[in-house]
Amino acid sequence: MASPQRLTDRKRVAIVDAAIAEFREHGFDATSMDKIAATAAVSKRTVYNHFPSKDELFAEILQRMWESSVAQPAVPYVAGQPLRPQVLALVEQKMMLLCDPAFIDLARVVFGETIHSPERAQAMVARLNEKETGLNIWIRAAQQDGRIKAGETLDVAHLLMSPLKTFAFWPQITLGEPLLSPARRREVTQLAVDIFLCYYSVAKHTA
């Protein structure tokens, strides 16, 4: 027999999953806690025991998105090794996340609600931006080693990830386009690496 704690955890996950589905289909304001409870197949009281309000539920969705984005193992910077395979590993890792249907579902809910009610997500999004990512750590190490041009770390990271977001994120979030095919993923990944190294790599160390 499942322990009470494990059962409670499963119910919490079911509630969050139900909230994601309902927020995505109907929007935050039009979704009731009653509907979330029905979709999760739990009582309304159970929902409120876990989440006193819809705002708390939305914060949990943001937290889940944050955990997904930082769960990937860091790609370490390796001095003396060619840059391209290292940058390729960074981009492939990000592409894998962007092609995860569960992550895209989370992102659709989060960004859709952020557009309609920016104040609801400002504090949490600010927290996400403050998180030191493995990508930023890699860029800073490469800059300190003189192999990547100096520049604001976030700006450098944004340029590297811009092609991915252009083709593998925003069309899927805003227009509902399908996830990229494996062949298209490879094309976009190579494009991102080429643009980044063309502009940011220091010529005498380029490999």
TrEMBL record:
Family annotation (InterPro entries): DNA-bd_HTH_TetR-type_CS, Homeodomain-like_sf, HTH-type_TetR-like_transc_reg, HTH_TetR, Tet_transcr_reg_TetR-rel_C_sf, TetR_C_Proteobacteria
Gene Ontology molecular function: DNA-binding transcription factor activity; transcription cis-regulatory region binding
PROSITE patterns for this protein: HTH_TETR_1 (PS01081), HTH_TETR_2 (PS50977)
DNA-binding region(s) from the entry: 32-51
The entry's keywords: DNA-binding, Repressor, Transcription, Transcription regulation
Pfam families xrefs: TetR_C_7, TetR_N
Domain HTH tetR-type: 9-69
Protein name: DNA-binding transcriptional regulator, AcrR family
